[in-house]
Amino acid sequence: MGLISFPGNAGPRNVLGLMSGTSLDGLDMGLYQIEGSGADVQMKQLAFGCTPYPTELRTKIRAAFAGDTSLICALNVELGQFYANESALFLDQLGSLGQVDLVGMHGQTVYHIPGHSSLQIGDPSFLAQQLNVPVVYDFRSADIAAGGHGAPLVPYLDRLFYRSTTESLVLQNLGGIGNLTYLPKDSNQPLIAFDTGPANGILNELAHQITKGEQEYDHDGKISASGVVQSDLLETLLQHDYFGEKPPKSTGREDFGFQFVSELLEKFPMRKPEDLMATLCELVAQSLRLSYQQHLPEVDKVYLTGGGALNPDLVARIKQAIKPIVLEDLPPNPAFDLDSKEAAAFALFAHERLNNHRTNLPEVTGACRPVCLGKIALPS
Description:
Elements: E1 13-20, E2 26-35, E3 42-52, H1 55-64, H2 69-93, E4 102-113, E5 117-121, H3 125-131, E6 135-137, H4 141-145, H5 155-162, E7 169-174, E8 177-183, E9 192-198, H6 200-210, H7 222-225, H8 231-237, H9 241-244, H10 258-267, H11 273-295, E10 301-305, H12 312-322, E11 326-329, H13 341-354, H14 362-365, E12 375-377
Parallel strand pairs: 1-4, 4-6, 7-10, 10-11
Antiparallel strand pairs: 1-2, 2-3, 4-5, 6-12, 7-8, 8-9
Helix pairs in contact: 1-2, 2-3, 6-10, 6-11, 8-11, 11-12
């Protein structure tokens, strides 16, 4: 009941995956050929691109985090138009390769209440009409309705493509928020996944505030590398309630975003900006150490993904914090590359939604049962 059948069930399909994260970098667009379903699914990346948010649009998104309903209403349409226009341009540039059958659109998260609700905006109707294909969107609500957090979701893809029988692995993503997937080498042991806490979001927010909007992020970690970690402040920040919670757990910019950074600057006005950046960078590294020590069995290797993997200072701090665990970049994979993993996940979820295959992981999100993720917008 409530399931929908589509012609060509299980593909092959060319699926466009769209991801816009809490770090506000922009829109990731990945085109994938996907066939099969469940454990037999096969993916191949055809193309990937990323377009930054225009300054005015990014400013509106930042303002929307404060909860202005009129702005959120207008932004829902503006983002939908932006996603549609950029997707059409991306596909047009691919020529004959840019044929698409389906879109999976995550949308822009503007608020997340763990275990209660999660709001992603960007009206999918514009994509459905402009590309003339079904669009799957709002991937978190069904899991929340089943009692889950609606996050994290990407571990479903991680389990399919990275599980090893010789090593227990952590796939650590550093987007606006940090999240991990633990894949034990023993198939009898459970997969574990949760949000580790802050990542690029607080670093980008601090860069924005201390440069008065001139920098949206700490390029190559130069600001943090020039600072000195404030040990007393770091100890205080590590007392945040989130770090003491047990999985399943999830968080967002509501905990580690504008307000977090603004209060930091207000309470410690005499600290040098570069020292604050170094301290927040170390906070991210130490939050990973705590997550591994408190919630994971033995870890052999950590693969780092997301924008934070491109920050040399942050990577160096993480390596030091988690010793003797080995830290490496994600190995090559024909299904997707280092930058496109999250876009690939939502392309896969869209494909499986049309297959009526359940893709949440209740042991990860806390849901009471497996459910199909995503709503479907159809072209007229």
